[in-house]
């Protein structure tokens, strides 16, 4: 038998780079350690000597990158004695908060926008026992109310304004570098509330810097403080992408009525405004928008050419870099990684509506099935 190895989640894996005490009870669902999938079929289509990878965050326990932040935020909340967490959400944060609250044995309150949340996400929050509060408003309304509630009641906010969320999410950047043995030249990522682009930049920057660290000392029984050497000497340019109908970074101002088929990023007033601009500017990156049609086309491309099924908001990262390769913003020969933030199963309605295959109905007879196969070879 091979030596047993049971992965225990990203806090255990990256404990020396995360603000967690040794004695803290870790709330984990074994999140992280997601696949970095080389998109070799799409590489052949686009050419230009591009090497393209997708960090498929749909493989996390609740099907999105939010779990990376939630393991940290809920671990911290529980360690501080909090008995309830709250968030506003376009869906994925609520599913993740509900799951980690269930795991921890605490209460989760989630505010979701009316009618604009993908079915899978709603199902998750409901079955996981969260108190789901649907507001007659959008994510930005929910975010404003959550901040007001949390200042008056004993509940911990687990939106990405909670700094522990970004600490957990930065580990995706570590995993990319650990997998490649180098930093990518470009990292493409969807931008909604802008927490994730900020977290990746923290992660990429920490791996490229000498950082203070602590560890049990091999020579004495004490805890030693020492400097961790830089893991790599470069950082990627950060390319953020927004939906055209919800693109405050592209417009340079907040948007009052965001609208897009990519409901996950239907956000007009991003909370991590300054951090995201710092990531884009310090890295020499860029921010751009894609239309709903471009987003859905890319979702289909990934599914049809690579067998990778992500939700619409996630596909925007690949759609964006493909366009930036074509128009020369990303140089030939670049090594590009993109975050696919959530699983396609989150939003089955949109997938079915735009899939080209359709369903062929036939009688339950051999001949009819044979004919259907021959006709469609
Ligand atoms: C699939 O769940 O904001 O820029 O409330 O679910 O860090 O906000 C979701 C965001 C991208 C944008 N892709 O990330 C929520 C929520 C997917 C997402 C984003 C979200 P941020």
How would you sum up this structure, described in words?
The chain has 377 residues and is of the alpha/beta class. It contains 15 helices and twelve strands. Strands 1-2-12-7-10-11 form a six-stranded mixed β-sheet, sandwiched between helices. A four-stranded parallel β-sheet has the order 5-4-3-6. A two-stranded antiparallel sheet has the order 8-9. Strand 8 and strand 9 (223-228) form a beta hairpin. Helix 12 (292-306) crosses helix 13. The termini are far apart. Ligand AN7 binds at residues 64, 89-93, 160, 190-196, 264-265, 311, 313-314, 341-342. Residues 64, 89-93, 160, 190-196, 264-265, 311, 313-314, 341-342 line the site of ligand AN7.
């Amino acid at each position: 038998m091979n030596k047993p190895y049971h992965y225990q989640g990203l806090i255990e894996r990256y404990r020396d780079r995360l603000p967690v005490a040794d004695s803290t009870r870790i709330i984990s669902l074994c999140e992280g350690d997601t696949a970095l999938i080389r998109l070799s079929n799409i590489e052949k289509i686009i050419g230009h000597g591009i090497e393209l990878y997708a960090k498929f965050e749909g493989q996390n326990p609740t099907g999105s990158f939010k779990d990376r932040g939630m393991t940290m935020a809920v671990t911290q909340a529980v360690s501080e004695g909090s008995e309830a967490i709250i968030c506003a959400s376009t869906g994925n944060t609520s599913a993740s908060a509900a799951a980690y609250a269930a795991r921890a044995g605490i209460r989760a309150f989630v505010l979701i926008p009316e009618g604009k949340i993908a079915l899978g996400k709603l199902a998750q929050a409901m079955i996981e026992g969260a108190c789901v509060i649907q507001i007659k408003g959008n994510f930005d309304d929910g975010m404003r109310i959550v901040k007001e509630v949390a200042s008056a009641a004993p509940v911990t906010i687990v939106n990405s304004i909670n700094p522990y969320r970004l600490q957990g999410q930065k580990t995706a950047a570590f995993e990319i570098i650990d997998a490649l043995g180098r930093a990518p030249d470009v990292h493409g990522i969807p931008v909604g509330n802008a927490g994730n682009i900020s977290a990746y930049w923290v992660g990429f920057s920490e791996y490229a810097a000498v950082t203070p660290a602590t560890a049990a000392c091999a020579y004495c029984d004490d805890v030693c403080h020492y400097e961790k050497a830089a893991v790599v000497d470069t950082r990627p340019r950060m390319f953020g992408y927004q939906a055209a109908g919800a693109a405050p970074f592209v417009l340079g101002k907040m948007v009052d009525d965001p609208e897009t088929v990519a409901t996950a990023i239907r956000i007009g007033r991003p909370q991590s405004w300054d951090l995201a601009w710092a990531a884009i500017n310090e890295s020499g990156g860029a921010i751009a928008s894609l239309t709903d049609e471009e987003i859905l086309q890319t979702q289909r491309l990934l599914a049809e050419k690579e067998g990778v099924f992500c939700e619409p908001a996630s596909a925007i990262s690949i759609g964006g870099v493909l366009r930036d390769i074509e128009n020369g913003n990303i140089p030939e020969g670049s090594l590009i990684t993109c975050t696919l933030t959530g699983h396609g199963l989150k939003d089955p309605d949109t997938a079915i509506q735009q899939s080209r295959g359709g369903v062929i109905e036939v009688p339950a007879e051999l001949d009819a099935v044979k004919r259907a196969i021959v006709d469609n070879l």
